[in-house]
Design goal:
mainly alpha; two-stranded antiparallel ribbon; 11 helices; 41% helix; 1% strand; globular
């Protein structure tokens, strides 16, 4: 679909920064105590009420344009992985071009946020592949640097090709999505069959889906579920899509639920320096990933 091409860059970027979407998730699901016991719920992401206007506009665009056609087109385009090839450490530098100083919890760059997530996982003695997932889970945000609009990079994810659940944030905005009025896509099951399994379902396009496909040949399956579904809040918080999931999905979602608090609540002002952490993470990356990655 091409209806967004006439929109201005400003209209496609209503968030002040990509983390503003996560700020809104924290407002909806505040539960930092499992990771940060020294910080109260109300102290997390304390934005002024007026800043929610950008979040609402973001979701209006997201829900309008995330159609079955849009998703399949983006997958056909980006999953060729023919835009760049570079070592993961160069990719982190590339990702750091997204640095923004408006996050009220930290002034650290993207890599430091990823390190804080992975270090929290490591400190709790989870498997090393899960530590790696913490390090790379937001790698797909490089999509913004390939000129993708914010609503095609971040946001709560959800299936397309079937009826949109009213458990998705701001469900009223789906009235602008043409799939809402397409008989093929607007029933409970849409193009799918009951309990077909999420691997057979197209999810809305963004950094989760992109990094999953990038990593699917390298990381154990529980880690791939963490990457692919960590923003699928309407399911792992609301159980809105049980009718599409199979027994294996439900078993794997235990890992998604384990990972989610580390992603949202693990910011630590006393993070070790990169000089201290570098040897461990270089060895970890070399254990699981090739010398260069394709983007």
């Amino acid at each position: 679909m091409n209806s967004d091409k006439n929109m201005s860059d400003k209209s496609l970027t209503p968030l002040s920064n990509l983390d503003e979407w996560e700020n809104d998730v924290l407002r909806r699901y505040p539960d930092p105590s499992s990771i940060n016991e020294d910080k109260k719920v109300e102290e997390f992401r304390n934005y002024q009420e007026t800043e929610k206007d950008g979040v609402r506009e973001f979701y209006r665009l997201n829900h309008k344009f995330q159609t079955y056609e849009f998703v399949t087109q983006k997958k056909a385009d980006y999953l060729k992985f023919n835009r760049k090839e570079m070592p993961i450490w160069d990719a982190f530098s590339f990702l750091n071009q997204l640095v923004d100083d408006s996050d009220p919890d930290t002034d650290l760059d993207q890599m430091q946020h990823l390190l804080q997530t992975s270090e929290a996982i490591r400190n709790d003695k989870h498997p090393d592949w899960m530590v790696l997932v913490g390090l790379i889970h937001d790698m797909g945000k490089v999509l913004c640097l390939f000129d993708e609009p914010q609503w095609g990079v971040v946001g709560d994810t959800f299936p397309v090709g079937c009826a949109f659940s009213d458990k998705i944030v701001y469900p009223e905005f789906f009235t602008d999505n043409p799939d809402t009025y397409n008989k093929e896509y607007s029933t409970e099951l849409g193009v799918y069959t009951r309990n077909c399994g999420l691997d057979n379902v197209h999810m809305s396009w963004g950094h989760d889906e992109y990094v999953y496909h990038m990593m699917k040949n390298y990381i154990p399956e529980p880690g791939l579920y963490m990457l692919r579904y960590h923003s699928f809040y309407s399911q792992h918080r609301e159980n809105a899509y049980d009718h599409l999931m199979n027994d294996h999905d439900h078993e794997m979602f235990k890992w998604v639920e384990l990972f989610n608090p580390y992603d949202l609540y693990s910011k630590n002002p006393n993070q070790k320096s990169w000089a201290e952490l570098k040897p461990y993470y270089e060895d970890l990356v070399a254990k699981y990933l090739p010398a260069t990655l394709k983007f």
